[in-house]
Amino acid sequence: MRFRKRRPAPETGPQDYRDVPVPSVTVTDTGAAVAEDGGTAVTGHRGPVPEQSGPVGQGPVQVARSGSAGASHGSIAVTGALSVGGDLTVNPAPVPREPISWPVLIGTVPTEPSAFQSRTDLRERIDRAWADHTAVVLTQVLAGGGGVGKSHLAAACARQALAQRTDLVAWVDASQADRLLSAYAQAALRVHAPDATGQDAEADAQAFLAWLATTERTWLVVLDDITDPTAIGPWWPPAPAGGAGRVLATTRRRDAQLSGGGRTVIDVDTYTPAEAVAYLRQRLADAGAAHLLDEQARVLVEELGWLPLALSHATAYMINEDIPCTDYLRLFTDRQLRLDRLLPAGADGEGYGRQVTTALLLSLDAAQACEPAGLALPALRLAAVLDPAGHPRDLWTTTPVTEYLTTHRTTPTETEPTGTEAGAGAGAGAGAGQGGEGADQAELQERVDAGQARAALRVLHRYGLLTDDARAGNRAVRLHALTARATRETTPDADTPAIVRTAADALYELWPAEDHSDWDLAASLRANTDALAGHAADHLWTPDGHPVLHRAGRSLLNAGLYDAAVTYWERLAAQAERVLGPDHPHTLNTRNNLATSYRQAGRTTEAIALLEQVAADRERILGPDHPHTLGARGNLASSYWQAGRTSEALAIEEQVAASSERILGPDHPHTLNTRNNLATSYRQAGRTTEAIALLEQVAADSERILGPDHPHTLGARGNLAASYWQAGRTSEALAIEEQVAVGSERILGPDHPDTLTARGNLAGSYRQAGRTTEAIAIEEQVAADSERILGPDHPDTLGARANLATSYQQAGRTSEAITLLEQAAADSERILGPDHPHSVVVVEALRVWVREGKQRGRRS
Fold first, then answer.
1. CA-CA distance, 316 to 754, in Å (whole number)?
2. Residue 799: which of 779, 814, 816, 775 has the closest Cα?
3. What are the start-end ranges of the E strands in 65-210?
4. Same CATH fold, 770-860 and 649-742?
5. What is the distance between the alpha carbons of residues 678 and 336, in angstroms, rounded to a whole number?
């Protein structure tokens, strides 16, 4: 409606409007007013001009849905109400909204990082589920530890959605609930969600969720970095009416809420080795630094744990400093250099915004605050000195661990519960000792039981600081190597000795009495002991060598891993001599075990030289009747026996057997072992009757004392069968050897050296019984297995090849037999020496076979 120009009313002179009573006025649905040529246009209500803002006067004036007023040529246009003297309430007309320009982007989607790896397997899982879903909103949660690339993977999905012109893509910072609400409120206004006013963020956020539930437009909401699933719980987007919605979340957490409500959790791990190498190669090439890639690239990415965050910082460091993989690897493996130097914030070329150490430990403060409060930090420090590849879950129920957690329970820090950079740093390095200032000491002193220790482990799992997965058996508890290193580097030096000793005590308590009762557990404990020793400096050698060090070394020998045992005991012997001195009993123990390893590995000469010295030192320091002295002399006798010095071996073994029975008693396992070795020497010396008599007694005693399945019992019965075989009692030998071969394979495993020996002995009895074809089948396999497991120069391998040659000869395969025996004779003389009994026997057999072959040739 258009109004004509009006003349103003005549003035009546000055007046104080505040003295004039003003009636209540209500104006609604006024039209529009337009003035031209200098006039005044008014719509709504006009009253005297107020001299102050806010409610004035006595009578209320309410104006709603007023029209618009327009004026030109310097005139005045008024809409709403202009009043003096009344309580003024104005409900302004809605601001006209600009049309929505689809598609709409809320937030900032991270750009594609350099050398981005598409993570094909993960993307296929994400995209396949999206393609398959129908009317229900698809919500996927990418869960994984710090630095594995969850956000970059989600950003790739968001960029793809933008490229496909998805109507709405919202990138939402979900690390704190108020940030999420702010993003939702912004989105509500951008999409013109009904009831969104811009005045109340929470109400607008609810309006946005309602819009998502009813719209037929396509949308993707990315909730990045959920740190508190409970706080985010009410704000998960609902199922849309049109089935065109999709939610993708990222988090370090593993709480059950994340997989509730129809959500699917997708575990995101590190790069695969191939992806890691591809990233390194592409990143360096893109930077014009391809010359820095060298033959150590694969080793380097493995040292970095294939962690995308670490690879990004490491390659940036290499580019900045112009150093190749080999040089950076040398720096990285130097444990004197800290991660914040090798992976510094200045090498953050992709905008991660945090140092690697901070990023890896970001959720530690929040974990500290969870029940059982104050245990996450000491528990993580304990896990950090063990094998990153995993340790047994039962370790957390051992007495040393619960006692350590009791005395090292810490006060949760006062930082943000979900962690800031400062909070992560404070939590990672603070709270050493028995509680902090202001702690409730009564609560902190309360004894931690096994259930609380397990609960602390689960807290660390839920916060993505480690993985606790029962399906992994004896390697159930794992953490990334860089998380472990970051934890160690932020642990006060004064706390390290207690952590190391606790871990060692727990491993030792968990070790089975006999390795063969659980070979997999023993292997896990060995790996964890090795990892612990690498972080322990000399803490496991004060005041004496910790028994777990010796237990791990003996376990290698029990498992038949002789070369690994040599390496292990060489390192341990050097440490013991450096820290404890050459005459300390623990030093002598390590040298004795090293010599045993030499002998078992076939390095007989080195074994004899070392054992002669150890036996003399033990007798000088401990006395001739000390069990350790007897053990060293018994080992020396076994080495003499292996070297073919049978008479010397016999002389010592007879003395040791008598002394062991006198000092330790007839039923002591060491006494049984010395008697078994003596009987073996009797057999080798041709004193078969004495060997059989002694071995029948030893086998019976071993079965009674140790049990029928103990490796020592199997060994005694195998030696008895060999003596029966030597005495021509083939059927008795066969009956025992078949049982021993089966038992050894079942208890020790098919690749254990003792199993190979049992199978070889069985084949020998088959051959003697005329079952040559069966003997050859077994011996061919035993010869191949021995070479693979023990090496081509091991005495047992030499024996296996000679036995196979003998069976070939017996089967009439003379040419093959002579060829194989010629090689066996040459190797035996080279390795054992020409005077060794084995060399003498093999050379003589070869001479006979060659002569017989020539004679057959002349007769034909």
1. 52
2. 779
3. 69-70, 77-82, 86-91, 104-106, 138-143, 168-173
4. yes
5. 51
Looking at domain 104-267, its CATH class is alpha beta
CA 827 to chain centre: 45
**C-alpha to C-alpha distance for 327 and 486, rounded to whole angstroms:** 21
Quick one: pLDDT band at residue 133, thresholds 50, 70, 90?
low
CA atoms of 374 and 433, how far apart (whole Å) = 11
CATH number among 1.25.40.10, 3.40.190.10, 3.30.9.10, 1.20.1600.10, domain 649-742: 1.25.40.10
770-860 CATH fold: 1.25.40
* Exposure letters 511-524 (e unless 16+ CB within 10 A, then b): beebbbeebebbbb
Strand 69-70 to strand 33-34: parallel, antiparallel, or no bridges (unpaired)? parallel
Q: Which residue bears the tokens 């010095």?
A: 645
- In this prediction the pTM is 0.77
Bond from prior residue into 543 cis (ω within 30 degrees of 0):
yes
Query: What number is the average pLDDT over the span 517-538?
Result: 95
Where does residue 9 rank: exposed (0-12), middle (13-18), buried (19+ CB within 10 A)?
exposed
Q: How confident is the model at residue 419 (pLDDT cuts 50, 70, 90)?
A: very low
Q: Could you read off the pLDDT of 654-674 as tens digits, one per residue?
A: 999 999 999 999 999 999 999
pLDDT above 70 as % of the chain: 82
For residue 350, the one-letter residue type is: E
